[in-house]
Amino acid sequence: xxxxxxSIQEMRQKLLAGELTSIELTQQCLQRIKATDxxxxxxxxxxxxxxxxxxxxxxxxxxTGSAPLLTGIPIAVKDIFNTLDVRTTxxxxxxxxxxxxxxxxxxxxxREQGAVIVGKLNMDEFAMGSxxxxxxxxxxxxxxxxxxxxxxxxxxxxAAVASGQVVATLGTDTGGSxxxxxxxxxxxxxxxxxxRVSRYGxxxxxxxxxxxxxxxxxxxxxxxxxxxxxxYDPADSTSVDCPVPxxxxxxxxxxxxxxxxxxxxxxxxxxxxxxxxxxxAAIETYQQLGAEVxxxxxxxxDYSVACYYLIAMAEASSxxxxxxxxxxxxxxxxxxxxxxxxxxxxxxGFGDEVKRRIMLGTYALSSGYYEAYYLKAQKVRTLIxxxxxxxFSQVDFLLTPVAPTPAFKIGEKVNDPLQMYLSDxxxxxxNLAGTCAMSLPCGFSKNELPIGLxxxxxxxxxxxxxxxxxxxxxxxxxxxxVPEL
Length: 485
Ligand code: GLN
What we know:
The chain has helices at 8-17, 22-40, 48-64, 105-112, 155-162, 179-185, 219-229, 273-288, 304-319, 337-349, 352-365, 371-391, 417-422, 428-433, 462-475, and strands at residues 43-46, 74-78, 116-121, 168-172, 188-191, 212-216, 259-263, 292-296, 397-401, 437-444, 450-457. It is α/β, with parallel strands linked by helices and 485 residues long. Helix 7 runs antiparallel to helix 15. The longest helix has 21 residues, at 371-391. The two termini are 16 Å apart.
């Protein structure tokens, strides 16, 4: 039995029927990681001992017959989630030796449902990047082509699912970090509405944009994972107190009679022809399934990348001020006083991209520039938000590409930050607007690289885009292909 042939629900059935134990499943998972991770580098930390101990507990619980949803199922999380007793590096040298005294709420919720946490996944340092090349733990490789990036910043989370190392993972999405790697690796990833999932214990990058999201091999597993982590948390004042629906319940509701908007700003000339072809075919599939497709406009889309990078860097510069060599992680001190210690610690601890963003963000927030840059970006953000509000009075959800090209080569864009930032053009607007969106496989390029389709929903309409995604998944078989490793 190959580990990646089973969905979460199939694993659960086998565990409950006693055909498989959690120890066996966890061992298989650990073996698969051992066999493939020298090629992929998807994991920063594998916690074998802790995982096997949790699996033993799960087996006892399964024997009683009353086991919660994820009991005994191996899951991994991006190394941005605080985990009790297992180090959390956030892909940074500055947190190399950091062990959190508590679990992030999303991790606690996985554990409450019995999940076996097998490890912490590689990522761009502090989630800053679109390629998973900016990690102190080294570059992550795309399982479909090891010379290519898996996308970022949750590249490890997507590569681990695509390669069958684990059945599902958690990532975070500030400007596309769940959806773009899901697209590049041929798996399903969802960014929930801002406030849907607690950010407590998730290391902050840009707090007004950050959101936790699941990555899985199919839509139902993604829906199940979302249901586990979603919900109000008094420890996160931005989490929203509205009921969490059962995302699995009406998954097969279909799309007949639904109105799908195609924002014309997302179907631009520079779009890769293979992507255009795959997305056009997806539009046709939706029409065959009974949906109506109309052209719509999100007129401020062009300003999204500039607006996002200003706001994200400004918030990052403020959030990252806490890494000062006193409270967390690395400290370098050659005895030049407090300022000297700060300088040495931060110079040694942060990578180039993080430093670039701290400097740009500090500049945008400094007196004299605040109004011209940060405040202006906030005003533009309101206009972008309004675009989505207007369009959602006309259609049920939007359909777009996830990224303008399939996965690019490692090294191709790393020295050209502007090109790298531009690759987020289709994912960033939804973070600025705060609404939900997901990526699901919709085809392959000529050179066998996965292509993702983005569905963007109204705020808190995760159930609706999951239903639409499920209808597409049932009508096609793009998610059945697996990379050879
Ligand atoms: N690529 C974007 C950035 O670098 C998005 C990253 C993310 O969503 N965490 O900011």
